[in-house]
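Regression test attached.
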Amino acid sequence: MDKQYINAEAIMKAALKYQDALVTYAYAMLQDWASAEDAVQDALVVVMNKWQDFKPGTSIYAWVRQIVHFKTLEAIRSRQREITTEDEKLQDLVQGAMEGYLTEERADGQSSRLKALQECMSSISRGALDLITGFYRDANSYEKLAEIYGRSVEGVRKMLYRSRRQLDECTRKRLDNPEECA
Amino acid sequence: MTTPEHAGLFDAYLRDDLSPEEKAELTELLQNKDGKQEFAEYVQMSGLLVRAASRLEAESADKAIEAASRTMPSIKALRGPRQARGRRRRSILRPLSILAAAACIALAAGYIFLYQSVPGEDPVSVAHIIETSPDNTVTREGLSLRAAADMRLFPEDRLNTSSGDAWIRYPGEGIAIEVMANTELTFAGHDLVRLKRGQLACSVDGEKLTGSFHVKTPHGIVDVLGTRFLLEVILPSDGGHGETCLEVIEGAVKLTRNDGAAITVGAGQFAVAAPDKDLIAAALEKAAGTVNLIEGDTLEAAGWRHDTRSEGVTSFVKGFSLSRGMLVKGQTTERVRLIKEIAFDEGEISFTYQMNKGYWSFMIRDDIISGNFYEVGFETELNGRHTVRLIVDRAVVRLFVDNKELIQEAGFKIEGRLTRALQTPVILRLHVADQTTLTISDMTIKPKL
């Protein structure tokens, strides 16, 4: 970011551009979507307060992600759960995997990916959509969904897997050929 | 592409539900490059699915409103421009949620600049929270914020009152809404809220209202001018259609069902919008004078839900005529509640109760439209059968138990002071604690006219 354009507004706007990706990053660390949103929100408040700390010429995404990382660690500590060395090792590996994958470029493209996914969701069956919604939005377990929809647990698991794969393929296709899919 | 086995492993991780063996397996997988990539892709897609699935709901509600608007051109005309403005504003509302959280920081100037820098897109809030129970939430642009007094609400903010009531006002419009516990309400714009589930009490001052005001439910839309009404959306747990119940206290309300059938419900009437019920306005029992409850009406808080009104609660609720019992699923902090609105400055309430365990409380509160929220109430754990008499004389409330005036030592506690304006209705509210069985009989409310 060019020094002459740096102010609280510009920093916030730039940071908010990556909000979806940052929540995904926090989600991987915290294993809970609502907590991930809270952590990112807390991090953005820090960004608002400490925007002068941003070093011009460096990546704002990396800077904000680092703040999010601290916030996720705070959240993990606040759970007051015993953390074993195995947990810490897994945590480090998850962090490494997400940082390696969620690059600035991918973070930047997150909103296009979301838009494509939303368009793809209109192409799957009602039943599949209900399952997706029940699992991801309502956070129901496989067992609960099996009970709700009168299916076997394995049946729910398979259908979710198939629906998700279908959506994944459709999303990739839309991103690769936006005009063809329009 | 993730294999089904790895998908199960990743899901278990994201649900924080890994067994020690699975934890070891995932740790091993994440130590190789392909495993890292597979995991990160899966998490990213899971996050996108959470986000996309959450947005589905709001969009389908929008479509329903648009469908309803087609049958009501006036509504469409009224809300069209405002809705469009609200949507454009979405992208800059997101920072607002952060700024609201950081409101204490000395960046007010930058805050204003943030909005002024986008021509024609001022950050106009539609309403604000006057008071709320702790732990209620507002979802804004996918972020969950803790609801708080004085918090401004923006188009598409969703209020979830999981922990208790919240009170909302629309500045300048004379609209006050009391949102009961376990309600989900979306503030779609200056003139529209969407009640997905739960119950609200709404007062609209017709003289202050500049346009009109609408409440959309899964079953229809309520078209409001100056009025006071209660609205409840009941959604059964078996996935059935459910119903929207409307009770009008003052003025008149137009209720239009999703299929276009419409009815005007006047003061002292109620109507139910449901696919399988006739849309008719029926008279409520009169509130003035004496209200009698049927002997033996019993409230059992634990395990009851408000959608089981037919199981013995109906008579109690009907006994209160203007109120609707709201029985919430029993957990330690949840309560059964009944509300009664009646306009009097002086009057008397008396009843007999029988209780074997638990506790209950009775509150008198000023009308929500006046903006005063001082309450006077008493609570008791006094078991057995007792007769209670409450005398209300403007701002003074006197309590008699078994013909003896306010006896603290008997287990009653009185708190608060009634600071209501003259000629405004008071709200009488009965709370019954979880795990309490309470039988009330011979209740009479005698306003001094």
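Expected vs. actual: identical. Chain A touches chain B through 59 residues (CB under 8 Å).
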